[in-house]
Amino acid sequence: MDPFAPFRLTDRVAVVTGASSGLGIGFAEALAAAGADVVAAGRRVDALEKTAALVESHGRKALPLQVDVTDPQQCEQLVARTMEVFGRIDVLVNGAGLVTAIPATRETPEEFDTVIRTNLHGAYWMAQSCGRVMQAGSSIINVTSVVGFTHIGVPQAAYASSKSALVGLTRDLAAQWSGRKGIRVNALAPGFINVGMTADAPPEMAAAQAHRIVLGRQGTANDLVGPLIFLASDASAYVTGTVLVVDGGVLT
C-alpha cells in the first residue's frame, strides 16, 4: 500500500480564488505540486500571470482568470470557462479575502458591506457556481481565520463577522451537498501566518499576539501546505463540515 497515494491530486483541476496575492499564491503552487492543474483567479491580471508561471514550473497547466467574486455572474463565467478548457472542477479553494481594522463606532455601512461581500458572499457565489458542475469526490475549502473564533485586540467587526459566517456556510453546504452530491465542504482556519495581510500588519500587532502562539513562532505559508492538500485530496474522504485550525496553538 502506498500511504501517500490518497494525498495526490494527479490530473485533477483546482480553482483558487485570491490567487494574485498572499496565501492564494502558495495555495495554487501547492496544489500544482500535488499534481493538479490550476485555475488562478483574482482581480490583478499581472499578478495572476506570475502565479500561473509558478503552477507551470511544476509541470501542470495553469489558467489565469480575472474575476470579482462579489459578482455572481462573473463567478458563473469563470466556471464556464474552466469547464470549457478542462472539462471538470475537482477542488475549489475560496481564498479571496479582504481585511480591515476600523473601530466599530467609525465604520461606515459601505466599509462593512465591502468586507462581507468579498469574504462571505464571494465564497458563496463561487461555491454555488462550482457546486453545480462538481462531481462526487470533489472538495470545497473555505478559508476562514482564527479571528472568526477569538479576538486579537484589533477592531475587526466586519472581518471577524465574515470569517465566523464562513464557518456556518461551510457546515450548511456540507449538510446539503456531501450526502446528496458527494461534494465535501470544509474550512481551513489559519492563525498568524507571516504572509500577505498579516506580513503587512504593524510589528506591534504581531508582538502583542506572540504570547498566544503555543509553538512560539508565527506560521509560514508552508505550514498550510499539508492541511490544504489533506482537505483537497482523498486523504480527507471521510471529512466534511469541519474546520481545520492551523494556528500554532492560539486557540488552545
Q: How would you describe this protein?
A:
The chain has 252 residues and is an alpha/beta fold. It has a single domain (5-245), classed as 3-Layer(aba) Sandwich (Rossmann fold), CATH 3.40.50.720. It has helices spanning 22-33, 45-56, 72-86, 109-131, 157-181, 203-209, 225-232, and strands at residues 13-17, 37-42, 62-66, 91-94, 139-143, 184-190, 243-246. Strand 4 (91-94), helix 4 and strand 5 form a beta-alpha-beta unit. The chain starts with 12 loop residues before the first strand and ends in a 6-residue tail after the last strand. The model has no long low-confidence stretch (mean pLDDT 94).
Provide a quick synopsis of the model:
The chain has 252 residues and is of the alpha/beta class.
Secondary structure topology:
Layout: E1 13-17, H1 22-33, E2 37-42, H2 45-56, E3 62-66, H3 72-86, E4 91-94, H4 109-131, E5 139-143, H5 157-181, E6 184-190, H6 203-209, H7 225-232, E7 243-246
Parallel strand pairs: 1-2, 1-4, 2-3, 4-5, 5-6, 6-7
Write a concise keyword list for the protein shown above.
252 residues, Rossmann fold, 7 strands, alpha/beta
Average of per-residue pLDDT values: 94
Q: What is the count of DSSP helices, taking H or I runs of 4+ residues?
A: 7
Sheet having the most strands: 7 strands, parallel
* Percent of residues in β-strands: 5-15%
Adjacency order of strands in the biggest sheet: 3-2-1-4-5-6-7
